[in-house]
Specification:
Layout: H1 13-68, H2 75-86, E1 88-93, E2 99-102, E3 116-118, E4 123-124, E5 133-134, H3 148-167, E6 172-176, E7 182-186, H4 207-221, H5 249-255, H6 260-274, E8 282-288, H7 300-339, H8 356-404, H9 412-440, E9 448-451, H10 452-470, E10 473-478, E11 483-486, H11 488-504, E12 511-519, E13 522-529, H12 563-573, E14 577-582, E15 588-597
Parallel strand pairs: 10-12
Antiparallel strand pairs: 1-2, 1-8, 3-8, 4-5, 6-7, 9-11, 11-15, 12-13, 13-15, 14-15
């Protein structure tokens, strides 16, 4: 037995796994600690600015809800979502202090004072994100909200204007205002749309907008000082008063010929028109969600905690890695030791796990078992070949020595006996040659259309003399029109081996029958005899090389033990199968199944 080589500790799988885990742990813990210090310090510096930005965004989204809803129903979902996203406590109350929605648990006290007031008719948080401008939130569109058909109509007009601008060498883009109206915005520093493209189609109010503008017109002209405009469509011309337009209340007031008083009247009229469509004014309270840490204190105590945790993680990692590595290395070492055993010992290893190493150990044991079986078969085969060749060679040598010594004259009977022994030797050698060709993959088949009836007749004719001498009735039954795509020589050899085997084991006055019939797409050929049959325990072995039921190797039954093995190899080379069935005392049946071929076309004379 070769001693196991000593592996240097630097190349040991166990050591490498442990060192790798230690390096990974040290680097990861150190990097995490450094990153925690750096990011926490930076987060403290940015926290205040981030909180202010988050609060502004909360106000903007709640103002958008108020601008698009007539009341606060359904705002609870938005409040909870914003609270979860921003990490802030959010509460909405009415002017009288009634709680509309609160992300905190019921009964939690509100902050000391409100952070902002949600009133989309007086505060614009939409136009400039992050800023609070005086005026009406553009998202408060009320009766100006366009239905789908009118949105498509206005969008088509906007695309038409953009196409006109591009043809004229200008450029621009479009955006959709909260009311659904598409607005064209010139680019490249242009203040307005080129004159050829400034058609009135895009600036004409839709039916929905006209209705809303008429309502607004009635509210405007009801203001004191604007009595002369009664009956005149002040706000019904164009889209200046439509939410999303560029006109301001001051510009509209200037068109009406008034000053600040008229401007206030216009703004009041617009708020009065939109008021039924927006949620009532509400107070917004913002605060911390739970107890937030005041900051990061890298004190000596915290440093000790980091070091302690790092050491603990390192120890646990090393221990776990060592356990895993030992479990991994142990079966590998057992496999190595078993592989180094002498071949004749056929060493095996214990399968202790169901992981990759366990599967490897099972595969190794299976390979060892197959090698042991092949070795046994090889020894048996060598012994069988030696025995089969020794008998005829001994006979030939004996008769030749007797003749050489002058004890027996070389008469015709002696020559015939020597010839029979030589034929037996030739038969054994031919069989071995055929098996060697199959094993090496050099067996060549010369396929051609074969008439099964003709093939069966040829094989029966070749064995009829032997059958007559033995007093055995040899018959054949074949279906007409049955063809094979096969090598006729090899098929005659396979069927001949089966008939010879059947005649060898059939007593005098027995019967051997060769049958060929069609079953679906298969041609089924059977050789049936009335001999003594095959024992059930022997049936699985009849096609093995050098296997014979008669272990005494009686010359009465003859045979080399290779005939049936050659039959199986030849049939499988043709893409078919061969099976054996028998009952002791009732004979045996060997069945060949091959793919059936169509009858070849015959040439007309």
């Amino acid at each position: 037995m070769t001693p196991s080589p000593r592996i240097p500790w630097r190349k040991s799988l166990l050591v490498r796994l442990v060192l790798t885990s230690m390096a990974i742990t040290v680097v990861s813990v150190g990097a995490t600690s450094w990153l925690a210090v750096e990011t926490t310090t930076r987060a403290i510096q940015e926290e205040r600015g981030q909180v202010l930005s988050d609060d502004t965004d909360i106000l903007r989204q709640l103002s958008g809800f108020a601008a698009t809803h007539a009341d606060w129903d359904g705002v609870h979902t938005l409040v909870r979502t914003l609270s979860h996203t921003m990490g802030r406590r959010i509460a909405l109350t009415t002017e009288t202090g009634y709680t509309i929605a609160d992300s905190a648990a019921p009964g939690t006290a509100l902050p000391a004072r409100a952070s902002a007031t949600v009133e989309p008719l007086n505060t614009d948080t939409y136009t400039e994100p992050g800023a609070q401008l005086a005026g009406i939130d553009p998202r408060a569109v009320g009766p100006y909200l366009l239905p789908a058909a009118e949105r498509a109509q206005v969008k088509a007009a906007a695309e038409k204007r953009l196409a006109c601008m591009r043809r004229g060498g200008s450029n621009g883009s479009s955006r959709q205002s909260p009311s659904g109206r598409t607005v064209v915005i010139p680019h490249d520093g242009e203040a307005s749309v080129p004159l050829p493209c400034a058609d009135a189609e895009l600036t004409t109010a839709t039916r929905t907008e006209e209705k809303a503008l008429r309502e607004l017109n009635a509210l405007i002209v009801s203001c004191p000082g604007l009595e002369p405009w009664r009956g005149i469509p002040v706000a019904a011309a164009g889209t200046d008063f439509v939410p999303g337009s560029n006109a301001q209340a001051s510009d509209i007031a200037r068109r009406l010929g008034g000053g600040q008083r008229t401007q206030n009247c216009v703004e009041s009229a617009r708020r009065a028109q939109l008021d039924p469509y927006v949620a009532p004014r509400a107070r917004l309270y913002l605060g911390s969600q739970g107890q937030q840490p005041a900051g990061f204190d890298l004190s000596p105590a915290n440093k000790a905690k980091i070091v302690g945790v790092t050491g603990l993680v390192l120890a646990i990692t090393v221990a776990l890695t060592a356990v895993v590595a030992i479990r991994l290395v142990r079966p590998l070492r057992a496999l190595t030791a078993a592989a180094q055993q002498p071949p004749q010992r056929h060493a095996r290893v214990a399968v202790t796990t169901k992981d990759e190493t366990g599967y490897l150990a099972a595969a190794f044991n299976d390979l060892t078992a197959r090698r042991e079986q092949m070795e046994a078969q090889r020894k048996a085969m060598v012994s069988d070949i030696a025995h089969e060749l020794r008998t005829p060679l001994t006979n030939i040598r004996g008769w030749l020595e007797v003749t050489r010594d002058g004890l027996l004259a070389p008469d015709p009977d002696l020559i015939a006996s020597l010839h029979d022994e030589a034929l037996l030797l030739q038969h054994i050698i031919d069989d071995l040659q055929d098996l060697a060709a199959v094993d090496s993959g050099t067996l060549r088949l010369h396929r051609e259309p074969v008439d099964v009836a003709e093939l069966a007749a040829q094989v029966v004719s070749a064995h009829s003399t032997r059958a007559e001498v033995s007093g055995i009735r040899l018959s054949t039954r074949t279906d007409p029109g049955l063809w094979l795509d096969a090598d006729p020589v090899r098929m005659r050899q396979a069927l001949g081996n089966l008939l010879a085997n059947a005649l060898r084991h059939t007593p005098q006055n027995g019967t051997v029958t060769l049958t060929a019939k069609q079953t679906g797409d298969l041609a089924v050929l059977t050789v049936e005899d009335t001999g003594g049959g095959i024992a059930p325990e022997d049936l699985p072995h009849v096609f093995e090389r050098f296997w014979r039921a008669e272990k005494s190797r009686s010359r009465r039954t003859g045979g080399s033990g290779l005939g049936l093995s050659i039959v199986r190899q030849l049939v499988e080379a043709h893409g078919g199968t061969v099976t054996a069935d028998s009952e002791p005392g009732a004979g045996a049946v060997f069945t060949i199944r091959l793919p059936r071929a169509t009858e070849p076309e015959r040439l007309s004379p």
